[in-house]
Write a structure and sequence with these properties.
With about 110 residues, this protein is an all-beta fold. Helix content is about 0%, strand content about 55%.
Length: about 110
């Protein structure tokens, strides 16, 4: 399984309870798409940030950093809670249409 960490950090307010999109398009070979998403895993910081409700992004969208996520090239997860000043990492593992697993590690800073 390939594991890649994002270069930019997502910002989240402790009171946010919303869905974030995470793109995998640059990691997929031409013509290959995301076919499934495993439950996200949160590490770092304290235990106040939770992630759930994972899904393949099936229509073109834009992530919280302003990057375009093409249809079937990304995953979404609902992030809730968190403690201001804590830094977390959300790991989302997708399986592509070739049956390969890719783990994306997305830094999340919780800020007031």
């Amino acid at each position: 399984m390939e594991t890649v960490e994002a270069r930019r950090t997502f910002a989240k307010h402790p009171n946010d309870d919303r869905t974030f999109g995470f793109g995998f398009g640059t990691l997929l070979p031409t013509g290959v798409t995301v076919s499934s998403v495993a439950a996200p895993v949160v590490t770092g910081g304290d235990v106040a940030l939770t992630a759930a409700t994972e899904a393949v992004i099936t229509t073109q969208s834009v992530d919280a950093l302003g990057n375009t996520i093409e249809a079937n090239e990304g995953a979404s997860a609902k992030l809730s809670g968190g403690t201001a000043g804590q830094n977390y990492k959300v790991t989302i593992t997708v399986t592509d249409s070739n049956g390969e697993d890719i783990a994306g590690v997305f830094p999340v800073d919780c800020r007031d």
